[in-house]
What does this fold into?
Amino acid sequence: MTTRTPAPPPAEAVFPALGTTAVLLVTDPNALPAAEAVLRAELAAVDLTCSRFRPDSELTRVNLNAGNPTTVGERFTEALQAALRAARLTDGAVDPTVGRAMTALGYDRTFASLRPEDTRPLTPALPVPGWRQIIFDPRSRRLRLPSFTHLDLGATAKALTADRAAHRAASATGCGVLVSLGGDLAVAGPAPDGGWRIALADDHARPAADHGPAVAVTGGALATSGIRVRTWQRAGRTLHHIVDPATGEPAAPVWRTVTVAAATCVDANTASTAAIVLGERAVDWLRGVALPARLVDLEGRVVYLGGWPPDSVPTSIAAATPGDPR
It folds into this structure.
């Protein structure tokens, strides 16, 4: 009779990054330092490239040069192409030209620096310029934004970083890796027995209940978007950070949270963010892209789509690639 030595539990590193929390898990504890070095390098690079709040970031330079042609770097090109693809797949529900709208709503500094109750009046909201107005040649990396247009690459850039870091760390260490950046989660390499167990909650930073809803992820990615955590007060209104490009206002509150599984974190985040913006139309749209999804409405009622298992049935989630709903 042979016995099998159980694998050691995953090793973990947790630290603040990109205005949220970075979580790194590896199946080989000895690989944690190397995997963490990869993750920190990716985080530093995306912050310098895509931060709206750093005066020395490439995104700040691009936004200040709106109306004029400019040449961007390879990493910025990758982030911009991810954002433009998200806009195309969602028919503009996720649009990178929301930068000025975010600033007008008061989200003009890191979330931790926002005044919780800002009495300044809000400026009238307007539809955003729209991603189709961006002129970009990926071969020459020449970009021209419309005048007075500011990009916000935050959502897709964070998800892209999770994808890049997970795959680079798995390649460097040869073990299973999970990277989570504030609800954007990607895995790579061999998963632990039974998969990575992921608890589902409104707030990734709060401990989930031991017997709360959870899924096991063996590959691909998950992303959760919601309207309950990143909120602030402005002129007597409660605002949140997911803007409807059609109005320039925070998306109408229909879903408290939306979680989507996909082959990449960029695709999962694109779909979960679009669902928040689309509101009542999200169910039909998600059915069209055929991604597993879990939507929670304002009263706590849960809708399961695309084979997402009921909360009472813990099981694995299969990664998928979104289709084009149009």
Summary: The chain has one domain: 11-317. The chain has a mean pLDDT of 89. The longest strand covers residues 255-262. The CA atoms of residues 201 and 207 lie 9 Å apart.
